[in-house]
Amino acid sequence: MKEKLYFYYTNDLHSDFSQWPRTAGYLKDMKKNRIAREEAHYLVDVGDHMDRVHPISEASMGKANVKLLNEVGYDVITLGNNEGITLSHDDLYHLYDGAEFEVVCANLKHKEHNPPAWLHDTRIIQTESGLRIGMIGLTAPFNAFYGLLGWYLTSPFEELEKQLASLKKEADIIILLSHLGISEDEAIARKFPDIDVIIGGHTHHLLRTGEYVNNSLLTAAGKHCMYVGEVILTYDHDKKELIHKEAYTTDVSSYPEDEDTRGLLTELEKEASGILGTEVVYLEEGFQADWFSDVPMMQDLTETVRKWTDADASLLNAGLLLDGLPKGMVTYGDIHRICPHPINPVVVHLRGDELIEVIRASLKKDFMEIQLKGFGFRGKVIGRMLFAGLSISTTLRANGTEAVTGVTFRDGSAVEKQKTYRIATADTFTFGRLLPEIAKSEMKQYFLPEFLRDLLLDTLRNKTPQP
């Protein structure tokens, strides 16, 4: 007897709820079709369903996302870094208390060895025919962040060595839900041929019809759930082996919206509006945002970050403030709207010559105009860099570009090229190659769970005496 199994998956929604009713509509229709044909089928998500950029996720600390997954009828999920490191310890600990699905994440561990009841390394799903499907989850190992929140991550490869030994004995089919990225997925497939399917995410890659690496079928559906992935497995019960594997992605960006899901989102929006409508500060004067100028409010925020981290100096990009605020009462929702990024402050150690190079690079026109995507940044462009604790002298070249002619500390002391300084900035710059000197710093001290918008609120409160 041959049996077909159907797996529908999503990854990296990032709380793009404008798309979710269409995605939900497609998934519900696929479930109805499989139920009508009495075919085994499962819904899975591979992480970063939540992103605190959206007011609904911000107000509920991700619990609204769990309600949305419940409403569609998911079976198994794993965590992404947005669920894992943008919430406080307690918020993550209780995030899935109301989940009606299984959560697998083998490399996420609790520092006090007291994991939440919902967290599992692996789960075995059994079909009506008795076929056993082993599910294991892995998430990106941002240990520098997790460690500050009361968690730690084991090596994905070491965890697979440990878990697969027992999983092979218990399961007929093994599926990895991987929020590690395409490069890691390919490396895992090369090293662990016992994994039949790797459903991936994190790097937002789209594999329209999947790809084989070694024995594993790799698949992923891009970002924001514009695509829904489908994996079809054919198992021969007589031979007791998996004989065929297929993977597809379907563009659901124009699919009809599901009315029930749209209704639930409307309810969640109302709840979020009530929570974020809390008044937090009164402004005697409003301010404007300007991504390419020395905005006073951004300058004040940069100074707040310097003092709060006890750094020698600090630098922040003006693109962090998406909008200004008028005079009058300000709600937390207003703060979230103008600074929605899940970005934490960080202090890095830089030598004086490295600091000067960072300043020079950050004031170049092409750097300021980078339309940054990811790394926690949820704005449009990086914008002009502002500095606290430093005095920067510049001149305009004949071609209109700005050149740095001098850098000193505010007290007039020189920046010594071989001396190491503590420089505060946004954690965005510790990733990738935006500012290599910061990214390669051997000492990075992250501050969690505070986001930059929390320090923006402190800045506004300190600037305007409250009644």
Detailed description of the structure:
This protein is α/β, with parallel strands linked by helices and about 475 residues long. The chain is about 30% helix and about 30% strand. The chain has 15 helices and 24 strands. It has helices at about 20-35, 55-60, 65-70, 80-85, 90-95, 145, 155-170, 180-190, 260-275, 295-310, 330-340, 350-360, 365-370, 435-440, 450-465, and strands at about 1-10, 40-45, 75, 100-105, 110, 120, 120-125, 130-140, 150-155, 175-180, 195-200, 205-215, 215-220, 225-235, 240-250, 280-285, 315, 330, 345-350, 385-390, 390-395, 400-410, 420-425, 445. The strands form six sheets. Strands 6-4-3-2-1-14-15 form a seven-stranded mixed beta sheet, covered by helices on one side. Strands 7-8-10-11-13-12 form a six-stranded mixed beta sheet. Strand 1, helix 1 (about 20-35) and strand 2 (about 40-45) form a beta-alpha-beta unit. Helix 1 (about 20-35) packs antiparallel against helix 9 and helix 10 (about 295-310) crosses helix 15 (about 450-465). The longest helix has 18 residues, at about 260-275. The chain is globular and about 80 Å long. The model has no long low-confidence stretch (mean pLDDT about 95).
